[in-house]
Amino acid sequence: RYFLSSIDGFIYMSEQVHEELKAYTSAPALFSPHPLFENFGAAVARDEACRRLGLDPAQRYALFFGLIRDYKGLDILLDAWARFRCPGHRLIVAGEFYTAREPYLNRIADNGLQDEVLLHDRFIPDDDVKYYFSAADFVVQPYKTATQSGVTQIAYQFCVPMVVTAVGGLPEIVPDGRVGYVCPPTAEGVAAAMDRMYEGDALKRFRENCVEERRRFSWEEMCSRVTELYGLVAPK
Length: 236
Known about the structure:
The protein has 236 residues and is of the alpha/beta class. It is 41% helix and 14% strand. Strands 5-4-3-6-7-8 form a 6-stranded parallel sheet, sandwiched between helices. The protein has a two-stranded parallel ribbon with strand order 1-2.
């Protein structure tokens, strides 16, 4: 409260953060989602991405990406995958464990997913990020809580469809049925959304829609919001 009362204006990245902010200050505040991460380079051909990662290009891949923390719901996703499991499909889990590893390994074993879950549980260098997103059909963010997530912006950068849970600011960034699906933060909900990804031309349509939706997340747009905010708070 002491810190926030000294600030003249705010940029917030999700409505959840805005609601929390309003409990402490009535200073002007404008919404601006996080811009795209342009530092990871451009997408590459799927076959090349699979070769770089040692993946079989004949398989189809879903991707869980980023540091592994309990709130990100990897346990939900593993239970969901046990319901979804489909011949020729694999789940890539790419990122370092920032929580105990053993409960997740036990869940993989209990669900009999040793051959279906590919653990790349290590730091992913910036130069390798494009290969993961170029190999994946879609990204899954089965979060239990969230404000916003940088993973969605990486997915937009590479025009990769998304399955996200209806928590925090994720539904604001991923419009349901346009670039992916928003689902309940349950194993049943995530499994059903993953099933729907392979219905009809959903993946193709979502990739095309990402091109349009990602325009909301340019650095120019954020600069415009900052300029607008200064106009509201600067002395007249």
